[in-house]
Amino acid sequence: MRIVSIAGARPQFVKLAVISRAIEVLDDSSIRHLIIHTGQHYDVAMSDVFFADLQIRTPDHHLGVGSGPHGAQTGEMMKRMEPVLLNDPPDWVLLYGDTNSTVAGALVAAKLGLKVAHIEAGLRSYNRRMPEELNRIVADHLSDLLLCPTTLAVENLRKEGLAARAVLTGDVMFDAALAFRAQAEARGLAAGWQARQFALATIHRAENTDDPERLRRILSAIERIAANICPVVLPLHPRTRKKLDEIGWTPSAIQCVPPSSYLEMILLESRARFILTDSGGVQKEAYFVQVPCITLREETEWVETLENGCNILTGSDPDRILAAAESCSQAGPWAASYGDGHAGARIVEALRSASELRVS
């Protein structure tokens, strides 16, 4: 069985690490796993460090696409990806999450008649203004095997007539959190940040960074939190740093730092008093380590995290953000299930089982 994983953004590298480990543990010579890196995230802090920290082998193909507008970036990925898949057609094209790399892989593979499997299938925020929502929908409807992290994701697919393709596997991000937290602790990362003495913030989604007024509102709220509640550390995504330069913003109380590696982020998340984010992955990781989360969006694809005030949606309203920061200490208990830490193994087994059915 030949599997080609297509990844290009840092959350996808984490998920890829789980799948790569699951395949290695099987030690099955009949499984050949190739990696295509689209180059969507291409600098050292957003790409290379993830492959090193998570012990992912060097990609077999690096498309080197880089950044750009959605259409141009997705089109360039498709252009460079097609000959790679044509040259050595796999049994499965494995897609991760909801990025432009995901939708590019889905379109190319489906048009070539290749079998497609989608990890994190069935997630819905029901906000079609978000590029990620459109990517999820397209990838799910073009995929032959839908690998779902939660029962709600399976139910979402059932409503869209896709239940026959859905398999409940659990969440590979939960696998990763379990596998890598001890490694991060052993390396002594995040030194200097005392547990529960700071808040962690991340901002990167286009809906927040591409709207200058919305970005200013979010930053003003985080500045108020840093000045009046507790210090705030903000690892800056390259897109966010560029936008901050464009609007001429400089921090007064927020402590801005370069992008953190995955291992350091795990420790920052686990030690934070609370987390402010627009990232779906960080929302879940906050839930995994039972730290209250404030989501800087009006909706979330991870609706299970909203139970018991564990995650609070505030949008960009400064007063709502500040109120959530003042009240989130009452969060909990954390009751939702994202699996048992063996989602990676279930995904590989689902691919093998589906391949055997095709052969028979």
Notable features of this structure?
14 helices, globular, alpha/beta, 14% strand, Rossmann fold
Give a brief description.
This protein has about 350 residues and is an alpha/beta fold.
Describe it for me?
- The protein has helices spanning 10-26, 44-53, 70-87, 100-111, 131-142, 151-159, 172-186, 206-209, 212-228, 238-247, 262-271, 280-288, 318-327, 343-359; strands at residues 2-7, 32-37, 61-62, 92-96, 116-119, 145-148, 166-168, 199-202, 232-235, 255-257, 275-277, 293-295, 311-313.
- It is built from 14 helices and 13 strands.
- Helix content is 47%, strand content 14%.
- Helix 1 crosses helix 14, helix 7 (172-186) crosses helix 11 and helix 9 (212-228) runs parallel beside helix 13.
- The chain starts with a strand and ends with a helix.
- The protein has a 7-stranded parallel beta sheet, with helices on both faces. The protein has a 6-stranded parallel beta sheet with strand order 10-9-8-11-12-13, sandwiched between helices.
- Strand 2, helix 2 (44-53) and strand 3 (61-62) form a beta-alpha-beta unit.
- It folds into 2 domains: 2-171 and 339-359, 3-Layer(aba) Sandwich (Rossmann fold), CATH 3.40.50; 181-330, Rossmann fold, CATH 3.40.50.
- It has 360 residues and is α/β, with parallel strands linked by helices.
